Amino acid sequence: MRKKIVAGNWKMNLDYNEGISLFSEIVNMVRDERSGDQSVVICAPFIHLNSLSQLAAGVIGIGAQNSHQQESGAFTGEVSAKMIKSTGATHVLVGHSERRQYFAETDQLLASKTVTALQHNLTPIFCIGETLDERNNGSYYQVLETQLNDGLFHLDEADFRRVVLAYEPVWAIGTGLTATPEQAQDIHAFIRAKIEAKYGMAVSDDTTILYGGSCNPSNAAQLFAQKDIDGGLIGGASLKSRDFTDIVKTFNS
Ligand code: PEP
């Protein structure tokens, strides 16, 4: 059975003390609110990973927001999957739209980042999504299919099963515009059909696909009630302990 996950993405926010303080609140609140078959993950800036892993107390998984595709070497300023793993982190975002847009990350690069992350036993949360132009000009199915084909479908079945997907329409990230539950379900069903065509129905049924894009306590329940949506990747609302916990709680309601 596929896992339900609510993952927070703190982006480039919170200094060291602010991160510890918010995370401590989240651990205490989420401990009482999550259900047994649900995972909660916080993807934090690198400076937080080790401390948060120690505070997580088995309640919350810790993820990085990026990792380098090479094992090690002369890549000043970069952080490897092995380093991330050594902090106690368990997950890593791959291909967030802000990485694709501001750091020119291509599907080919993301394909190799995914392989390296898996080699170090990190769970990649692989993000795909279309821009507003692509939504408006009707090319979005093709865009998403290319992101899947070029970024993920090089994996064999065993490795693919270790990946979590996140559908994040770029036009909904940080904008306050959310995909309607019907729009999101339509795309999640499309993604699941592509996975089925590539890896078969059993793999497709078991793949966790998160929705991300201005998800908040008011819209999470309707989104998560869709049959192909298995949780959320939460940006802005993960910076408020009450909002984030309320989103986690929607799985119990
Ligand atoms: C994100 O950064 O992945 C995201 C979904 O952000 P927001 O929830 O703020 O739209």
Bound small molecules, by name, code or SMILES, are:
phosphoenolpyruvate
What's the N-to-C terminus distance?
20 Å
Helix count equals: 12
Order of helices and strands: EHEHEHEHHEHHHEHHEHEH
Main beta sheet strand tally, sense and closure: 8 strands, parallel, barrel
Determine Rg (CA atoms, Å).
17 Å
Q: What does this molecule look like?
A:
The protein is 43% helix and 15% strand. It is an alpha/beta fold and 253 residues long. The chain has one domain (5-252): TIM Barrel (Alpha-Beta Barrel). It has an eight-stranded parallel beta barrel with strand order 1-2-3-4-5-6-7-8, surrounded by five helices. It is globular. 44% of the residues are buried. The model has no long low-confidence stretch (mean pLDDT 96). The site of phosphoenolpyruvate (PEP) has 14 residues, from strand 8. Phosphoenolpyruvate is lined by residues 9, 11, 168, 173-174, 212-215, 233-237.
Short précis:
This protein is α/β, with parallel strands linked by helices.
Keywords summarizing the entry:
TIM Barrel, 8-stranded parallel barrel, globular, 43% helix, binds phosphoenolpyruvate, 12 helices, 8 strands, 253 residues, alpha/beta
Topology, pairings included?
Elements (H helix, E strand, L loop, with lengths): L3 E6 L6 H18 L4 E6 L5 H7 L5 E4 L16 H6 L4 E4 L2 H6 L4 H13 L3 E6 L3 H5 L3 H12 L5 H4 L3 E4 L13 H19 L1 H6 L2 E4 L7 H5 L6 E4 L6 H9 L4
Parallel strand pairs: 1-2, 1-8, 2-3, 3-4, 4-5, 5-6, 6-7, 7-8
Helix pairs in contact: 1-12, 5-7, 7-9
Bound molecules: phosphoenolpyruvate (PEP).
